[in-house]
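Predict structure. Chain length: 97.
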Amino acid sequence: MIRTQIQLPDNLYDRSKDIAARLEISLAELVRRGLEYMIAVSPSLQEEGETWELPKAHRLGGRDPFADPSWREAIHTERLKVAEKPADYKVRRKKSK
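Prediction complete.
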């Protein structure tokens, strides 16, 4: 384990000591837990010179919707079909007593 010194504003030090006392842990343990949390939720930093690449795409199943040259028309037609069937949606009404 490495020893280190940090400088804290008085207010932050006092509040941290209060939290550590309530949790019944040392200030050092509180700082370690805080740093571990920040490392866990922070995105990992890339090393210098490393480049990011877009992940390779993979098929999710089914056919390619854009293979058909008239895909825009097909999508529009599907939307119209849905809009023409309002009876498919049932509305619940409260029964009056």
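Summary: The chain has three helices and no strands.
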